[in-house]
Amino acid sequence: MALAEVRVEEVEPMDNEPQARPEELRLLEALLFASSEPLDTATLAKRMPDGVDVKAALAQLQAEYATRGVNLVRVANKWTFRTAGDLAWLMTRESTETRRLSRAAIEVLAIIAYHQPVTRAEIEEIRGVVTSKGTLDVLLETGWIKPRGRRKTPGRPLTFGTTEDFLSQFTLEQLGDLPGLEELKGTGLLDSRLPTGFSVPTPSDDPALREDEDPLEPGDDLDLALAPAPEPEPETPQGGGEGSDEG
To answer: What would the pLDDT profile of 46-75 be if each residue is shown by its tens digit?
Structure first.
């Protein structure tokens, strides 16, 4: 009896089989997930094989994660994974808020963000009211502001600026992303009938001290430097202000 002929046909690969991802994307993904803090491009590049275009790889990885539950974002010129904005409510825990920023603290924070480097006296001049020590203390405790240096003027007052934590808290890549005049008008935060020539300063991301600043010295006593002089601290408005801080 003749044996039946067996035909073996070559199986062609299916078009929907998953494609291997570039190794550099896997490496970047692993480094960013493992890191407890955002990483800058230079740090990531040191861990990549020679010849890898890290900026292009980050852009590709960012595009991959754009529609996922976590996104790759750049904060303060560093890269990190964050929960997608529309899913942030999943991470919200019901808890009692023990302290909120006062209106005075919010005003001072905004002035520092836009006018940095700025001294306490300059903040008071802009606001038209005395700024209490407590207001600056609260903002220093948040980690959103820090002393930068000392102004080269009599008394050598501290100058203040914002920190990377400030950018991270408000999801800003850089200080230049702060809303400008037209954006502030659109949100209703500024009166549309502003004086002629009114402008909102554009803050600089350059961390270097200015020509009118000296560096901080070791052992600078911040409590002493922030303390009002003379004591006790006045609680009356300066100029046309409506009153002093409430802390």
So the answer is: 999 888 999 999 999 999 999 999 999 988
* 201 lies in some domain: yes
Q: Give me the long-range contacts of 225-231 (CB less than 8 A, separation at least 24).
A: 225/147, 225/157, 225/158, 226/120, 226/133, 226/136, 226/137, 226/158, 227/133, 228/132, 228/133
Cα(204)–Cα(175) distance, integer angstroms: 7
Question: What is the residue whose two structure tokens read 């942030």?
Answer: 88
User: Could you give the maximum distance between any two Cα atoms of the chain, in Å?
Assistant: 117
220 and 117 co-located in one domain: yes
User: 72 and 183 share a domain?
Assistant: no
How far is CA 20 from each of CA 23, 171, 242, rounded to the nearest angstrom? 9, 33, 65
- pLDDT averaged per 10 residues, the chain (length 247): 51 54 89 90 91 92 92 89 82 57 89 93 90 88 93 93 90 86 69 68 86 84 44 46 52
Specify the number of domains making up the chain.
2
The answer to whether residues 109 and 145 touch, using CB atoms and an 8 Å cutoff, is yes
Q: How far apart are CA 179 and CA 190, in angstroms?
A: 12
Which domain does 50 fall in, by range?
23-86
For residues 217 and 104, what is the distance between their CA atoms, to the nearest angstrom?
Answer: 29
